[in-house]
Amino acid sequence: MADADTADAHTADAHTADADIIVVGAGLAGLVAAAEAADAGRSVVLVEQEGEQSLGGQAFWSLGGLFFVDSPEQRRMGIRDSRELAWQDWLGSAQFDREEDRWPRAWAEAYVDFAAGEKRAWLRGMGHRVFPLVGWAERGDGRADGHGNSVPRFHITWGTGPGVVAPFERRVRAHADRGRLRFAFRHRVDGLVIEGGAVAGVRGRVLEPTSADRGRPTSRTAIGDFELRAQAVIVTSGGIGGDLDLVRKVWPARLGPPPRTMVAGVPAHVDGRMLGIAEAAGARVINPDRMWHYVEGLRNWDPIWDDHGIRILPGPSSLWLDATGKRLPAPCFPGFDTLGTLRHLRQTGYDYSWFVLTQKIIEKEFALSGSEQNPDLTGKDIRLVLSRVRGGAPAPVEAFKRHGADFVVAENLTELVAGMNKLADPDAPPIEEATLRSLIEARDREIDNAFTKDAQVTAIRGARNYRGDKLSRVAAPHKLLDPKAGPLIAVRLHILSRKTLGGLESDLDGRCLRADGTPFPGLYAAGEVNGFGGGGMMGYNALEGTFLGGCLFSGRVAGRAAARAIG
């Protein structure tokens, strides 16, 4: 009789379970986790509060940059990289200094091994390809053992963000066609189902269907309730960057006062809800004060979501001024030390700063982050890519120059200053032409020789020693007031919200941990919701190309581990 009761109980459990594994969030980490779990023979439900048109989440909008170490592309460009150098850079950037950094540091080391090992081959086996010129992002704070990349490591995906998403979307859709995976779009999770101290599923509201384009605001009108049950739940719901009030709430004092105004680098549905839901259920959130926001944001003249901001990926030549017209100190140069520059600017009392540059600089050094801002790379259009080496800035950059509210274009410095003062905040002191002219002329005199005491000019010349920068990224040093390099351009820069670097603490299998350090049975996490690994594998600073890579790695780990663990 006992055997029969046991058999009946198992049969009932099998009938009530909707899948072996539930994945919450259909961004890149969720797609990877779902694909890996389904590959292992497990049934999967992929739950997403947005519509099917948003599959791929924030990765779709990205430039598709990936952090590889000692890649063939690097070697062809004459770059000598190594796992040891990458780990040195990672530690210098992360600056782990807390007891809570045990698992983040372990994840960081595992990720660097992955980036120096099988990451490229794994992706390549799925058809992923990269652009041959390796970019040098986040060049650092000027110290060999400090923050930043010692060498170029930013590999742009051929196809940008959609090219990163595509292999995993194909895998997931193939499993759906075979019946191993099903989608639950417009299902908003409001809570975890807990039984016997273990996570046994999710519950929430079904939202009304939406036809809104990807990234556009969608309805939150509920038309019903749902509950889904499984042996494991993997949370891959992203960070908090779309909720600017929440960003301000957790803003750390070490970065200065939170900005009153900023632009959003992600849509509003990147709201951090699942962080709170998982924490309320008993999972531990660590390092919530670690975050990654940019200081080169533009108001999008053709916005997709509310407060839509676009980041400039700058070369090193623009003169950077604070809102009062003072030049930023070393190493606060364009593209060098994101949070160091943010920290400096938050002490000025203003939420914006300025680039002053020339047409010659914008043509070679301005790139805009995002798949939609790079139609040549996104569309894999070789002819359009080759047009970048001809005269003129890329078409999306020229469009911002013509239509963007943050651009001033002038034939002389007098007109430029007048335009800057029109765009300035009412409470900011006006930029004085005589002061700015003296500053620029002092900088321009340093161009006459191949050697200089100006640290930024030295950095420009040093960057051009790298063939990739000389070919496509860094303009030849020239005087800003040289009419042949004009017109002059000023760009008002905003703080742009982007990534959450802390999150759900997890072990090296992606299992969420409780406050006492023990695994929370049945609960896993991957992607931005767990700081891309462990609860913050990047520590205080990111090396760029690591956000997508962190989603890939943590999604793979969690999907495989959950598939192994269930009965």
TrEMBL record:
Chain ranges of the FAD-dependent oxidoreductase 2 FAD-binding domain = 20-548
- Determine if Transmembrane helix is one of this entry's keywords: no
Which Pfam family, any one of them, does this sequence belong to? Answer: FAD_binding_2
Q: Where is the signal peptide?
A: none
Q: Which domain of life is it from?
A: Bacteria
Q: Does the keyword Cell cycle apply?
A: no
Gene3D superfamilies, alphabetized: FAD/NAD(P)-binding domain, Succinate dehydrogenase/fumarate reductase flavoprotein, catalytic domain
Ordered alphabetically, the record's keywords are: Flavoprotein, Oxidoreductase
Which GO molecular function, any one, fits this protein according to its record? steroid dehydrogenase activity, acting on the CH-CH group of donors
The cross-references to PANTHER family, in alphabetical order and at most eight, read: 3-KETOSTEROID-DELTA-1-DEHYDROGENASE, KSDD-LIKE STEROID DEHYDROGENASE RV0785
Which protein is depicted?
FAD-dependent oxidoreductase 2 FAD-binding domain-containing protein
